[in-house]
Design brief:
The complex is a heterodimer of chains A (107) and B (155).
Chain A lengths: L5 E3 L3 E2 L3 E8 L22 E8 L2 E8 L8 E8 L3 E9 L4 E10 L1
Parallel strand pairs in A: 2-8
Antiparallel strand pairs in A: 1-3, 3-6, 4-5, 4-7, 7-8
Chain B lengths: L5 H21 L4 H17 L5 E2 L2 E4 L3 E2 L5 E7 L9 E8 L6 E7 L6 E7 L5 E9 L4 E10 L7
Parallel strand pairs in B: 1-9, 3-9
Antiparallel strand pairs in B: 2-4, 4-7, 5-6, 5-8, 8-9
Classes of the chains: A mainly beta (107), B alpha+beta (155).
Chain lengths: 107, 155
């Protein structure tokens, strides 16, 4: 049941430019605080880690807690010095890893 | 009416005392300060016990959050972000949430900016505290009060 993440970043940039990256991952982010209609707690199930790499090197990552709202939105920045590929990963509590990639031309 | 013996009075007092202690442990009578203590403990863990200097971090949060289920948050530090001087992490805790941890952002020298934004859940009006760590091992902190009209913890 792979959800598709949404990405927004430029396709081109100048060398040394700091670009803005926005990501959105569809996910319920069940906090573990809610109870079902019988009063039983609904177990926690969240994306607990988000990571962004560029050409294999870590750029930005985040450890997420249940206080992150549903459909986790992450906005951050990256300084690009060469063309290449951004790789994004989202890790669920249950171990599922979702990945996405986006190329950028830097010149 | 028979007077309570001193022993009985002490016994009742001890039970009440133990009872209110139990209430505190379960968080019913003092949940607000218990959450703040948990938040402080998380911060101490992050800084290794070092005191963080106030300042340098800009926290962007609405003054009033209409919907505690999704509150936009941004944290940024005006830092050079060069290979030998960059912000490596920013911890965010919410003092009034059932669990104070919100997120830990990790940056690198190629982040370009020590800035991240996301959307968070807030249970009630509370302080949000951010603590930044630099590659030089320094710590900075800032906090912001957010008024929450409808709590977002789904209870």
């Amino acid at each position: 049941m792979a959800e598709k993440p949404r990405l927004k970043l430029p396709k081109q940039a100048k060398k040394g430019e700091v670009i803005e990256i926005k990501t959105l991952m569809p996910h319920i982010m069940e906090s573990g605080q809610r109870k079902d209609k019988d009063g039983k707690p609904i177990p926690r199930k969240i994306i607990n880690k988000f990571a962004c790499e560029f050409n294999g090197k870590p750029v930005f990552s985040a450890n997420l807690e249940p206080a992150i709202a549903a459909n986790p939105y992450m906005q951050f920045y990256a300084k690009v010095d060469a063309s290449g590929t951004f790789k994004f990963t989202w890790t669920d509590d249950d171990g599922t890893v979702t990945t996405a990639e986006e190329k950028i031309t830097v010149g | 009416m028979r007077q309570l013996s001193r022993r009985a009075t002490l016994a009742i007092g001890a039970t009440l005392g133990a009872g209110s202690a139990a209430l505190t442990i379960f968080g019913w009578s003092d949940s607000a300060s218990a959450a703040a203590k948990e938040a402080a403990a998380e911060i101490a863990k992050f800084t290794g016990g070092k005191t963080a200097e106030k300042g340098k971090i800009t926290i962007e949060l609405p003054e009033i959050a209409e919907n505690g289920n999704t509150v936009p948050l941004s944290v940024s530090v005006d830092a050079p972000m060069t290979a030998d001087n960059y912000v490596s992490e920013i911890l965010v805790v919410a003092e009034g949430n059932p669990n104070p941890g919100v997120a830990t952002f990790h940056f690198s020298a190629v982040s370009g900016k020590a800035e991240a934004a996301t959307r968070i859940r807030l249970a009630t009006t509370q302080n949000i505290i951010a603590v930044a760590k630099t590659s030089k091992g320094e710590f900075f902190t800032a906090q912001k009060l957010v008024k929450v009209t409808i709590g977002g913890c789904g209870g």
